Each structure stands twice: as structure tokens, then as C-alpha cells.
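Appendix B: complex inputs.
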Amino acid sequence: MAAQVRASLMITCLGDVLFPEVGAAMVRVLRRLGVDLDFPDGQTCCGMPLFNSGYHHDAALVAARTVRLFERSEHVVVPSGSCAWMVKAEYPGLLAHDPGLRAAAESLARRTRELSQFIVEVLGVTRIESPFVGKVTYHDSCHLLRGLGESASPRMLLRGVPGVELVELPGSDQCCGFGGSFSVRLPEVSTAILDKKLGHVEATGAHCLVACDAGCLMQMGGGLSRRGSTVKALHLAQVLAGGAEA
Amino acid sequence: MSDTALRTPFPERAGAAIKDAFLQEALKIATTKFIDLRRESFAGFPQGEALRDRARAIKEATLQRLDEHLERLADNVERLGGTVHWATTADEAREIVLRLARDRGVRMAVKSKSMATEEIDLNEALEHAGVTPVETDLGEYIIQLAHEKPSHIIAPAIHKTKGQVAELFSRELGGRFEADPEVLTAVARRVLREKFLQADMGITGANFAVADTGTVVLVTNEGNGRMVTSLPRIHVALMGIEKVIPTMSDLVVFLAILARSATGQKLSSYTTLVRGPRRAGELEGPEELHLILLDNGRSRQIASTLREALYCLRCGACLNVCPVYRQIGGHAYGHTYPGPIGILLTAMLRGNESVRELAHASSLCGACKDVCPVRIDIPRMLIELREHLDREKVAPWGERVLFKAFRRLLMSELAFRLAARLGRMLQIPFVREGRLRALPLLLGRWTRTRDLPPVATRTFRERWKELR
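Resulting structure:
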């Protein structure tokens, strides 16, 4: 038997404070797949909100802290494409002023994976026995799709669940309008983009809208519940774990 | 755009655009069509991706030695009998055109579509000097009649429905025209044919200028560009200095991807190559050709963060896919160049201060980068621009304080935990059915249209002890 895979959870700020059920679902799924998990103490946020708004000096301080916290992790799993992108694509550049930190950031970038990519690429699993039953549609989060170039793994995993019927979302590659601080800097524009997206979602007839990014789920879930929709926004981990329950 | 329009803050301009039902309909139809046409065009063109890389490399290399290429271009244009003018600023460029018009008794100038002339507000300057400018591209003609500005780089009247154009033509040209694009085009054509024959000066931009051969290249779809460059006795071409490319083989690379990116065409209907004025024995062409090389802040950017914006071919693909542009259209941006690339170009031409608000008019979704024929990393550059605004302390004071405080929170797990706890307490009066539906202050901007999940009863961190 192959050696057990060991991985650290990078739970992210939104995952910790607003969506702990997503993290719990992720733990259930990964444990079932035999992964030995740990949760490095002290973690907070990847710093992307600072970085995207142009506060690069501040973002670099946060990045340096995160790099140190995950220094000893064999693999790092993140339930958000955007945070994974931040670590993988932006950390090395942000920490370029210090050769030691830069090397550590590059190493972390290599060891870090978004959840669906971790399951498919590292664990080599595409079928997960989950009791979940329902018609779902999938939204491609911008950073996962265009940043990390990933559209296949989440769909593969959804199709691998026996009870899931996956219907494609028209314009699944179009932004949901979240964009971090964009959603409060320009709320009208952000909401207009969201409304278009939710129109497409409701037209699919799916019961669940699945995504791999807490930001998009906060935006789309917030819009769905505001319009009193019966469609639920769920993280991929929740479908793979068997449902929305905590 | 007038200064009055710019005095309205950007969020209000954007909000008004979202409420404009006509604009929304026009934008949806046009951008969707452009997106589909572009996608189909590249799907059947496997060499397209490599050509995009090649085009980018040519732009990169050309900018490295821009001065040499420009001098070679100027030499060759003059060798062919043309005159080259160098304009450092928009003022200088306008002055050159006005002087030419004045000295040669020009009363009417026909124009082919040109964003560079928009950039320097040439039409207003001509009118002021008693020269009548007549736009001959159909879209430009429409907005000139409507006294508006282009709202898209290649489809200037994209914000107008055919019904609105029919009303405009009926009012301005006298008659009753139905909302049929063919009828309306025929009307415009009839009016414009007269103008081509009356005009003393033809004004164009340039999509490219080939240094080796002194060729000014125009990419158009209506044939008006040819008449502008051949019927009047004087042809004036205005181009940004970044439009120079070294050779004709480079031109082939760009032509293969430009129209595909813009309209999904393999090539535009007309590719006009202008080499000098009419020569002895030739039957057509202008007596004089003037090429104005416009800097207007461009050369300053060659070694800066905004450098990549100088690769832009003005195809408009990034506008069509931008979720923000698709909601607000071009006018709300408030400057000559709209859309994601427009934010960068505005910063380049008017300084970072001018895009204090616009720098944030992007969700950073990256769709623009994906479709850009020369792969300009627009989201990345917007982030860099925001970084400048922060460092130069142009960003609002309150915002900077907020982000610094946020950083402190992220640097200490204890502070982070306490903040979560504080949030849990403060939110109590606002939780309804497990959701936050109306929050005060900054968060009210979120909850006006969207629910927010409350801070969890127990955070993941707090649960981990049992999950472990």
C-alpha cells in the first residue's frame, strides 16, 4: 500500500468565520480518502483582499507569515480557487525582496492545491461515494478557471457522485460579480452582474449551484436567498461529503 | 467627455447606465454577438494561439527600439513624398491639423474612424476653427449626429438601438425612416457620398504603420476609409507612436488576429495600405500626405508599469467580455477609451489620479486577458495601478486606514479570533432566519441587494478540536 498522504488545511478567512461547514465537509471527504490532515495553528487569511486593492506592502507581510506557518506541510489544500491562486501565483513575486522567503514561497506554491485539483491530481481519485442526490449546476470561479486553468476536475468529481445529475450552466465561465472589495465598492454593478448569473442558474432547473470558491458562494448564495430562490449554493466539498448539513 | 459629465462620481454614472433599459438591450445584443463571433473565428483557426504569441513578441521587441523604428518610418514616408509631423501633446497634434487646414483653405474634412482623433478632441477643435468635420464611418456618423462620443472602441454607436438611430436620422436629416439597418445605411451613404466629393481634407487614424516601407495601414469594413484617403486633396493620418511595426511580414501576423478578435472576421472587408501621396502618372490619391506621430504620454510609459497597454491593437475584444463593460457600456467610464483597457489607457494619457475610481471598476475576472490578441495582462496591471494609487496616497484616506487595520488583524491569530467574536456579538440584532439582511455602514452596501451569512456560532478553528 502506498504511503499515507499528509496534508494541511488552509481553511481561509471566509472558510473559518462564515463557512465552517465547508471546512468540516472537506475534512470528512479527505479523511474518507485516507488523507492524514492537520490544521496549522495561527493561520488567518492569504492576504488577497490587501493585494487586489493595491496594498502590496501589507499583503507581503501577511504572505511572509503564511509561508512560515505552512513551511513543514507536505501538501496544502485550499477550498478556494482564488486563495490557491494567490499563494501559487502571487506569493513568490510579493516576497521577491528576500531570497530566503522567496524560495520558501516558491516551495509553498508547489505544495499548494485547490481542493478539486488536490483530489484529482494528488490523490488520483475521480469517483467519490457520496449519498448526495440532486440536480446540480456548476459555476466556474474566475481564479480557478482562468488563473489555475481548471475546469475539468470539479466537473469530473461531480459526475463521479452516483446521485448527481450535472447540468451545464450557460455562461458558466462568466464572473458572478463578486470580485472581493469590488462587491462593496460598486454594489450596483456587482449586483447587476450577479442578477444575470442567477437568471442563468434558475433557467437550468438545478436544485443546487456548486462552486469551488467561498467568495463566489457568498455572492451567489446571498443573491439566491435574497430573491427567495429554492436553489441552494453549495461548495463542492459539501456535495462530495453528502449534503449541506454541518 | 465633458467635464460636467465627469463631475458626477463614477458609481452614479454606472448606476444610471444600469437603469437605462435601451442601453442594456443594445449592450446585451451587441456584446453577445461579438463574443460568439470571436470564439467561432478562433475555434476554426488553430494557428491563432501561436500568432498571438508572435504578435505580442513583435510589440515587445518594437517598443524596445521605438525611436529607431519611428525614425525609419518617418524617413520612408518622406522618401515617398509625405510629410511627417511629431506631436508631443494633444495640443500640438491639434495645432498641426489646424495649421494645415488654415494654410490650405480647408472648409470641410471627412474622417475615417479614429480613436486617436477622439483622444485629442479633434472634431471640436476643427469646428471651432471653422472647418466642418464629417464622420464617415456609419457608427461615428450616428454619434456625430447625436452629438455624443463613441462608447466602444470599434462599435462607437453600440449603445444605440436601431429604433433610436431611425428616430435620430428622421429628426436630423429630414424624412421618416424605418428602423431597418439597410434603409438607414442607404440614407447615410447617400448623404456621405456628397461629403466625400466636397471635402478638401481626409483625416484618418492608423491601425499600423510599417517602418520598412513607410506604409500607413487602415483596417475598415465600410470602404469609407478608402474614399477618405483617396478623394480629398489632402490626407492627414494621426497615429499613436506605439502603432509602428517593423516589417510587412509583421503586418501579416497582426492582420491575421486583429479582425478575428474584433468582429470574428478572417480579415476586415478593407485593408488599405497607403504609401505616400499621389505620384506622377497616378490617377488617384491625395496631392499631399501628412503623418502625425502622436506621443501624448505614451513614451513616458515605455519603462513603466503600464508598458503593456502600449501593445493594444484597439480591437475592443476586452470590452465585449468584460462583465463591468457589459453592464455599464462605454460612456459611464467617462473618457475616450472605455472598458478594462480604457482604464489603463486613461491612466497613461491623463495620469493615475484620473483613474482613482476607475481602477476599481473591475472584478479582476481575467476574461479580458483571455481574449486580448496580444495577451495584455490587464487584471495584473489594474492591480499595479491600484498599488500606485495606494503608494502615492491617492486612494481615499479612510480606505487606507481600513486596509492597514485589516492587515493588523491578519497578522495576529488572537486579533483575528477576537474580531470574529466581536462580529458574533455585534450581529445579534441583525440576524433574521439565520441570515444578515440589513447591516449598517459599509456592509449595508452588500446587504442592500444580497444576504450575508452570519459569523458562525463556532468558527472552523473552534471546531477543529473535535474534528481532529
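The radius of gyration of chain A is 18 Å.
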